[in-house]
Amino acid sequence: MPKLHRNRAPSYPIGVLPDLPAEPAAEQEPEGPSPPAPSANRQKWAAYAAELGVDVEGLTKAQIRKAVA
Question: Of 10, 25, 56, 68, which has the highest C-beta tally within 10 A?
Fold first, then answer.
């Protein structure tokens, strides 16, 4: 919406919009489980890694996050 300026003309043409660049086609990611929040506990990260087929035996949460990234 154009700004109204008291006793002044607007500094841009009214009713004319700039040409917007075409949006690139959105890349579709492969469907799969979405990762848990970074603050989620180790059990949730281990379950997520198991869905992806990553062995998490003996790994810490940080190591699991690094392995599934």
Answer: 56
Query: What are the Cα distances from residue 20, in Å, to 3, 16, 23, 24, 69?
Result: 21, 12, 9, 12, 35
Q: Contact 35/22 with Cβ under 8 angstroms?
A: no
Element (H, E) at 46: helix 42-52
pLDDT tens digits, 51-64: 999 999 999 999 99
Count of Cβ atoms closer than 10 Å to residue 43 Cβ: 10
What mean pLDDT value characterizes the chain?
83
pTM of the entire structure?
0.56
61: left (phi over 0), alpha (psi -120 to 50) or beta: alpha
Contact between 50 and 56 (Cβ < 8 Å):
yes
